[in-house]
Amino acid sequence: MVIAIIAILASMLLPALGKAKARALQIHCLNNMKQLALATHTYSGDAEEWLPPIQALLPQGGGESSWRAYLFPYVGKAPRVYDCPTEKEEVYANGRPSKNRPPSPWVLGQFVPGEIDIASGIGAVNVHWTFGGAQPPFGRPAGYENNLCRTPMIEAPSQFLWFGDGHGDAFGVWPQDRWWIWKEVGQANSPGFNRLAQGDKGAVRHNRRSNYARADGSSSLLDPARIPCDTNACWWSAKADSH
C-alpha cells in the first residue's frame, strides 16, 4: 500500500519537476541572449556605432568569419554564451562541426577557417539579409553585400530582434550556416516571414515558443506566429516599416 502511494505521488511530481527544469533551462538560455545583446552594444560603442558583421571574408583568406568571433572578447571569451542549454546537439562550446568530424575547440571565437562550420544554439538575426530594402541587424561589409547596420539606423529598438533560438536552416541544406536566422522561403526582403511556417526548429524550442533578445537589451519568450513582418511593422528589420 505504501509503495502504491509513493508511486502515485511520484507520478504527480515528475511532470511538475520536468516543467520546472525546462523553465530553468529556458531562463538560462534567455540570460545568454541578454549577455549577447550587451556585448553587441559594447562592441558597437567601440566600433563607431557599427554592429558586427553577420559574416565577412577572413583577412588572411581561406574562408569566412561569423558574427561570433567579433563578440568573443566581449563575452569574456566564453563559448557557452552562444548556446542554449535546451539544445543538446548543436552546441558551439563543444567545438564539433558535425557528428562525423572531431572537435576543433581551438577555432572557437577565432577569425580562422572552420569556425563557421560549428553550429550555435543561439542564432544572430539576419532574416532580410539581401542588399536593399529591409535593413538587417548585422549585415555584411562592402565588397560582400555592403549592408552593415549602425545603431542610429534602428527605428524601434524595443521591438527590433537581434538574437533568437536556433537558426534558419529549416531544410538542412546549409551545414556551415547554422548560426543565424534567415528567410529561406521566398524573396528575402519581402514581407511575411514566419519561422513557424518555415519550419525552423529553434522557433518552437521552449514549449512551442522561443527566446529573443532585442536591440534595447531586453529579452523575452515569443510565439513565432505572432512576430510581425508586414508593411506596418517588422521586428526583423532596423527600419520599422521596411517593406
Q: What is the average per-residue confidence, as pLDDT, rounded to a whole number?
A: 90
Distance between the termini: 67 Å
The low-confidence parts are: none
Strand order of the largest sheet: 5-3-4-6-7
Q: Helical content, roughly? A: 10-25%
Rg (CA only):
19 Å
Helix/sheet category: alpha+beta
Order of H and E elements: HEEHEEEHEE
Q: Give the helix tally.
A: 3
Give a verbal description of the structure.
With about 240 residues, the protein is an alpha+beta fold. It has one domain. Helices cover about 20% and strands about 10% of the residues. The protein has three helices and seven strands. The strands form two sheets. The protein has a five-stranded mixed sheet with strand order 5-3-4-6-7, with helices on one face. Strands 1-2 form a two-stranded antiparallel ribbon. Strand 6 (about 210-215) and strand 7 (about 220) form a beta hairpin. It is globular. The mean pLDDT is about 90.
Topology record:
Elements: H1 2-46, E1 55-57, E2 64-66, H2 67-71, E3 122-125, E4 161-165, E5 180-181, H3 195-198, E6 210-214, E7 219-222
Task: List key phrases describing it.
two-stranded antiparallel sheet, alpha+beta, 243 residues, globular
Summarize it.
This protein has 243 residues and is an alpha+beta fold. The protein has three helices and seven strands.
